[in-house]
Design brief:
Blueprint: E1 13-16, E2 20-23, E3 27-28, H1 44-56, E4 61-63, H2 72-81, E5 89-94, E6 96-97, E7 105-106, H3 110-124, E8 129-134, H4 143-155, E9 159-165, H5 169-176, E10 181-187, H6 196-204, E11 208-212, H7 219-232, H8 236-247, H9 260-267, H10 276-283
Parallel strand pairs: 3-4, 4-5, 5-8, 8-9, 9-10, 10-11
Antiparallel strand pairs: 1-2, 6-7
Length: 294
């Protein structure tokens, strides 16, 4: 089977919130924007083609955020895919602002979240956001106030499901007292397993986990994964994705790229069965600290 004939459907499916069924390999749309996750992409036709190719290859979960661009990622998704093929789910996020390229500032106030959801609906050309995630807790705003704002938007029919990103287990438990939480998006990889206990919690509570930064930080991680990749004749990112898929059935990796070639390579990870010894070898790699993003 060639890489281009492998579909994301080869991973099997996962159900989000009890009523959204998607293939277990998604697409992250942060890198389809310009340098510094700012402005239009250098090659807009390539970005649009990448989105379309991902969907052609069975991806039906696309993760984005209003801060990617800002607004550019959502607009490109709509330009490339609207009217959306049946079953395609767009998950977006709000709670950060962008003063400039490579700059991120918190704003999870209820007023800002309500405004962000309205703008995301317009850019994505949707009447309702299937999944809206709080991008990160804001220390200047009560966490419950942010979650209650999303719960209100859900009651108004503007959001179907609520998710969280860059959170602790305590955040998840506090949020679940206010509104059902269907997804958690944290940094996680074979070499960065700080959220291991959160993945386990998500498994027990039927919450989908979207990991970002799947390659893991540090030279030790890169050396370890390169070794496995050479052994099984795959790319390092394919191996990293295969590790995530083997780690848990609630994990939906969301690798991102602005290249058709790379999206085809990434989705080909759906056809990789990672040997148990390779899984254990990678699981033993210890992580090195990295900065917040996602």
């Amino acid at each position: 089977m060639s890489e281009q004939s492998i579909s994301a459907a080869a991973t099997g499916t996962v159900t989000i919130g009890g009523d959204l069924t998607v293939n277990q390999l998604g697409f992250g749309a942060m890198h389809i924007t310009g340098k510094g996750i700012w402005g239009e992409p250098a090659d807009k036709p390539a970005a649009l083609a990448t989105l379309r190719r991902a969907v052609q290859l069975g991806v039906n979960l696309i993760d984005t955020a209003d801060s990617y661009g800002p607004g550019i990622s959502e607009s490109l998704i709509a330009e490339a895919l609207h009217p959306y093929p049946k079953g395609v789910v767009i998950a977006t996020k709000s709670g950060w602002e962008r003063p400039g390229p490579g700059q991120w500032t918190h704003n999870a106030s209820p007023k800002h979240l309500a405004k962000s959801v309205e703008e995301s609906l317009q850019r994505l050309r949707l009447d309702r956001l299937e999944i809206e995630q709080l991008h990160a807790p804001d220390n200047a705003v009560a966490f419950e106030a942010s979650v209650e704002a999303l719960a209100k938007l859900r009651e108004e029919g503007k959001i179907r499901h609520v998710g969280l990103s860059n959170v602790t287990l305590e955040h998840i438990e506090r949020a679940r007292k206010i509104v059902p939480i269907v997804s958690v998006q944290n940094r996680y990889s074979f070499a960065d397993r700080e959220s291991d206990y959160i993945v386990n919690y998500c498994e027990k509570n039927s919450i989908v986990f979207f990991p970002w930064a799947p390659l893991g930080p540090g030279q030790k991680a890169h050396d370890a994964i390169k070794k496995i990749a050479e052994r099984i004749k795959a790319t390092p990112l394919q191996v990293a994705l295969a590790w995530l898929l083997k780690r848990s059935k609630v994990i939906v990796p969301i690798p991102g790229t602005s290249s058709v070639k790379h999206v085809e390579e990434n989705i080909a990870a759906a056809g990789i069965q990672l040997p148990q010894d390779a899984f254990e070898e990678l699981s033993a790699v210890k992580h090195e600290p990295v900065s917040l993003r996602g």
